Amino acid sequence: MVKKQEIPKQIRVRFEKLKELIEHHRERYYTLDQPEISDQAYDSLAHELEALEREYPELKGGDSPSDRVGGAPLKEFKKVGHKVAQWSFNDAFTAEEIIEFDARVKRFLKGAGILKNPTYTCELKIDGLKVVLEYKEGKLFRAATRGDGVIGEDVTHNVRTIASVPLLLTEPIDIIAEGEVWMKKSTLESLNKERAIRGEEPFANPRNVAAGSLRQLDPKISASRKLEMFVYDIAESSRVIPSSQEDELKELNKLGFQVNRHFKQVKNIEDVLTYWRDWQVKAPKEDYQIDGIVVKVNERDLQETLGYTGKAPRFAIAFKFPAEQVTTIIEDIVFQVGRTGVITPVAHLKPVLVYGSVVSRATLHNEDEIKRLDVRIGDTVILQKAGDVIPDIVSVVKELRTAKQKPFVFPTHIEACGGDGLIERVPGQVAWRCVNKNSFAQFKRKLYHFASKKAFNIDGMGPKIIDALLDAGLITSFEDFFTLKRGDLLTLPRFAEKSVDNLLESINKARRVSLARFIISLSIPQVGEETAYDLAEHFTTIENLERAKVEELQAINGVGDIVAQSIVLWFKDLEHKKMLKGLLKVVTIEEMIEKKETSNIFSGKTIVLTGTLQTLSRDEAKELIRKAGGNSSGSVSTQTHYVVAGESAGSKLKEAEKLGVPVLTEAEFLKMLKD
User: Fold this and answer.
1) Mind listing the pLDDT tens digit for each residue in 389-429?
2) Catalytic residue selected from 19, 125, 296, 652
């Protein structure tokens, strides 16, 4: 055990700041229904506090937030003492944590002399407000919020307005049942439309509205909000409670309660993981918010043996879905030189699990973004990653800041720019770039990009091999990739004959390239992937593009003045002309095939891809969209015609549902193309 004097001062300071901050957000969430941060960011802070308490047990006193349940009841409501103590669940966030929960359950049962392995019931964790219902002789007697677990608020007058809560059960029994009050996502959307018409601020999310609606002094307001309730547990009953969680849910349903129908009894923890993974994909399609699953030991006798800790049952746990928002610490800010010379500040983070993957870096975009966030080295930040979206720093948790975090000063020189390392701000933009346009770091990135899948797609020609070729002096320009000989490559360290032959085969295969990919490979500033395809379709040859005037370029949809000027200036540059001439001697640009618009299913339509597709890479899917006459976009808007959603689809799927954009599964997408 760690002695008190051995706990570092900075740990003590952070622990106290965390306690204070968690208590603040707990009151905002549970008591006032006015949260200031996302549930997931709150969970992340609480997770860090609990980790510190495990590492330094002396830190934990009787006032730790980790020992509390819910929040204090509001003064405006009559206080209700719960006949049965109300608990909250401990949380698991990863597969490893849920496997450890299973092991912990089995260890406890074995210690109690029980060798039988438990089975589990999986239920959806609805993001709402917990309410306790008390019935006498089958009639609704009282409804109360969880409150602090001992005292709740009497909200009977409002719960009576919820259509899914029976006022009279199918049998005249005394029973205390527990469940979650929630609001449909579609109901929230309608409410917000009405509020917009009245010039009022929109509600943030269904959970907050449900909680706020239940705490209205006027039941007419609650009734107008069209709340729902799922019931999931019998706390006390005048007759024998069923012997399993599965049968308990079925019994509640027979009594007239609305029970979420997606519960499932499973044999082992592997099946729990399967259920959890399946519902990560299914959850966004339901008309209520789901932030994870609840896992309970199915057998009631085993539940009673396992019992409770100070605040939670040992026989159950909340298994959260991968968080889209977490908290972590910025350990450093470094600068990355892009292939066009643009400088990007990148935050090096304390590694953290967010949305199913460990993240240790996040772009800070530019100097203006650093100033807007007031982000500093050593700061605790809220990090967001939804689906296939790049990790992004949402905000700084300034309450956890100490005197050590100093304002970040943007540099004037960066070594990676070469020469004197001087940088300059791009006129009219927020970006900074290297003054030296031919820095080695920039040149390397151009070579990486040239060989990448989106450009020439030289299979096996990754950054490490390109670095080795540069170190050996075997490449100094794009065309050098196609003049490499077998003997050259065999001189490289750890290059065997077979690997050399495979790489040469890839190089020869890449000699033929489409015009769009050729344009992409050139690293023309402001010209992205979609613009390159538009240019290729319009001009059909590289010679036509090279001769294009600014006015002609501006006439193309999506090409503005800045892009047009950038293209013209690039082709006028003598070095670029020389490079282009050499490259065209060693590669062949395939002839453009004229589109047949009338036969293309996606002609003139904009498609957005999100999540992981099972049978196609992202590039392959984009190519299919283009061949079918469509355009691929990276963001969802009212101009989007379809969203194709794969596994772990995130914010783009939510935005599509919000805007009413049709969503296709991968199978539906492929079927449309086939038909």
Assistant:
1) 668 899 999 999 998 898 998 888 887 787 778 898 888 88
2) 125
In the block, residue with structure tokens 């003054």 = 435
Strands (DSSP E) along 112-165, which ranges?
120-126, 129-136, 139-145, 151-153
Cα-only R_g, the chain: 30
Inform me whether the pLDDT recorded for 387 exceeds 60.
no
Q: What is the pLDDT of residues 211-249, one digit of tens each?
A: 888 877 777 888 888 899 999 999 999 999 999 999 999
Neighbours of 381 (CB within 10 A): 24
158-173 tens-digit pLDDT: 898 888 899 999 999 9
Q: Does residue 550 contact residue 564 with C-beta atoms inside 8 Å?
A: yes
Which structure tokens are listed for 267? 């044999």
List the beta strands (DSSP E) in 533-619. Answer: 588-589, 606-610
Q: Are strands 663-664 and 642-645 parallel, antiparallel or unpaired?
A: parallel
Of all residues in the chain, the percent with pLDDT exceeding 90 is 42
- Mean pLDDT to the nearest integer, 274-285: 92
Total number of residues shown for the chain: 675
Q: Given CA atoms 447, 449, 455, 456 in this order, what sign does their dihedral have?
A: positive
CA angle 220, 224, 230 (to 5 degrees): 105
Residue recorded with tokens 């395809």: 533
- What does the alpha-carbon distance between residue 663 and residue 625 come to, in Å, rounded to a whole number? 15
39-55 and 9-26 helices cross at what angle (nearest 10)?
140
pLDDT of residue 74 exceeding 70: no
For the ranges 118-122, 400-404, 413-417, 585-589, which has the lowest average pLDDT?
A: 413-417
Number of Cβ atoms within 10 Å of the Cβ of 538: 17
Nearest to 666 by CA among 608, 614, 603, 600: 614
Provide the sign of the torsion angle of the four alpha carbons 242, 244, 245, 247, taken in this order.
negative
- pLDDT score, position 389: 61
Backbone angles phi, psi at 58, to 5 degrees: -65, -20
* 381, amino acid identity: V
CA distances from 404 to 7, 22, 400, 408, 594 (A): 19, 22, 11, 12, 62
Q: Looking at the predicted structure, is the pLDDT value of residue 120 above 70?
A: yes
Whole-number Å distance between alpha carbons of 450 and 221: 61
Assign residue 457 a region (left: φ > 0; alpha: ψ between -120 and 50; beta: otherwise): left
Task: With residue 221 as reference, give the H or E element that holds it.
Answer: helix 219-224
- Find the mean pLDDT for residues 372-389: 85
Q: Are 515 and 540 in contact (CB under 8 A)?
A: yes
Give backbone dihedrals phi and psi of 533, rounded to 5 degrees, phi first: -65, -40
Q: How far apart are CA 439 and CA 415, in angstroms?
A: 10
Is 326 within 8 Å of 41 (Cβ atoms)?
A: yes
Candidate ranges 383-392, 577-586, 599-608; pick with highest mean pLDDT: 577-586
Domains and CATH numbers, the chain: 4-67 (1.10.287.610), 79-320 (3.30.470.30), 325-425 (2.40.50.140), 440-589 (1.10.150.20), 599-674 (3.40.50.10190)
> Is 125 assigned a catalytic role?
yes
State the helix-helix crossing angle for 440-451 and 463-471, rounded to 10 degrees.
130
For the cut 80, the answer to whether the pLDDT of residue 94 exceeds it is: yes
d(CA 554, CA 562): 9
Distance CA 614, CA 666 (A): 8
